[in-house]
């Protein structure tokens, strides 16, 4: 059976459940990469602090590592919240209609002040794709931390 991926009205509960589970898996991966990046950020800060008397470049690299670490920490918080929401969504979609379930989620997020009225109406596919972008961001930030680490070590 071919289901258009842009239309939640045609998704059955089982397909919605599996899509939400895919998002949970991607968010789990993003969380792990973000933790690794945060550890690398701490190592970079220690290296930069130790080497900063040798030159200003180490201080700059330390600041870059700290800023990247702050972004990673914010993203980790967001990924953790979204992971829990997608896990609950996956369970709800096992038994409920995707359209009404997403409308309930949107209502809850608006009541919490976490989403505006413009955020409502997004399809499940759009939400899952948005969640999976966190994995790309996590990998990019970890790669930048690795680059900072390499620069700190090569410039010694």
Helix/strand order, N-terminal first? HHHH
* Integer average pLDDT: 89
Q: Helix/strand-derived class?
A: mainly alpha
Total of helices:
4
Fraction of helical residues: over 70%
Strand content: under 5%
Q: Major beta sheet, specifics?
A: none
The global form is: elongated
User: N-to-C terminal Cα separation, in Å?
Assistant: 60 Å
Number of domains: 1
Number of strands: 0
**Uncertain stretches:** 1-6
- What's the gyration radius in Å? 20 Å
Structure, explained:
The protein has helices at 13-51, 56-93, 98-112, 124-154. The protein is mostly helical. The protein has one domain (13-103, 113-154). The longest helix is centred in the first third of the chain and has 39 residues, at 13-51.
Give me a quick take on this structure.
This protein has 156 residues and is mainly alpha-helical.
Features:
elongated, disordered N terminus, Transmembrane protein, transmembrane, membrane
Outline the fold blueprint.
Layout: H1 13-51, H2 56-93, H3 98-112, H4 124-154
Helix pairs in contact: 1-2, 1-4, 2-4
Keywords: Membrane, Transmembrane, Transmembrane helix
Transmembrane segments: 33-51, 57-77, 134-155
Protein name: Transmembrane protein
């Amino acid at each position: 059976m071919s289901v258009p991926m842009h239309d939640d009205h045609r998704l059955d509960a089982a397909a919605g459940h599996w899509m939400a589970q895919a998002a949970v898996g991607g968010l789990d991966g993003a969380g792990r990469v973000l933790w690794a990046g945060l550890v690398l950020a701490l190592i970079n800060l220690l290296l930069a602090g130790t080497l900063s008397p040798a030159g200003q470049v180490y201080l700059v690299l330390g600041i870059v590592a700290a800023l990247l670490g702050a972004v990673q920490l914010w993203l980790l918080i967001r990924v953790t919240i979204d992971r829990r929401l997608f896990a609950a969504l996956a369970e709800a979609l096992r038994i409920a209609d995707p359209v009404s379930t997403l409308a309930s989620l949107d209502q809850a997020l608006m009541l919490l002040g976490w989403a505006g009225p413009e955020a409502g109406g997004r399809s499940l596919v759009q939400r899952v794709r948005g969640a999976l972008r966190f994995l790309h961001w996590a990998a990019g930030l970890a790669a930048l931390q690795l680059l900072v680490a390499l620069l700190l070590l090569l410039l010694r």
